[in-house]
Design a protein that fits this description.
Blueprint lengths: L7 E6 L8 H9 L8 E5 L2 H9 L4 E4 L3
Antiparallel strand pairs: 1-2, 1-3
Length: about 60
């Protein structure tokens, strides 16, 4: 996973939540995402990493170095 110097992760949505389970849609909203190519910068915590793992097929971690 790409980490910046202040322990944050930038996540970009790459897939649509259409025809996905409700839990995956809720996870995307929890990550601050709701449209394709939208980005969100989040703290690098185990909870956030778990959310990313749950919807890994719909998001990617962006390396902005």
């Amino acid at each position: 996973m790409a980490k910046t110097k202040d322990n944050t992760l930038t996540v970009e949505q790459t897939g649509s939540p259409i025809r996905r389970p409700r839990e995956q849609r809720a996870t995307l909203i929890g990550l601050g995402l709701n449209k394709i190519r939208r980005r969100s910068t989040l703290p690098d915590t185990p909870a956030v990493r778990g959310m990313i793992a749950k919807v890994a097929h719909l998001v990617r971690v962006v390396d902005e170095a």
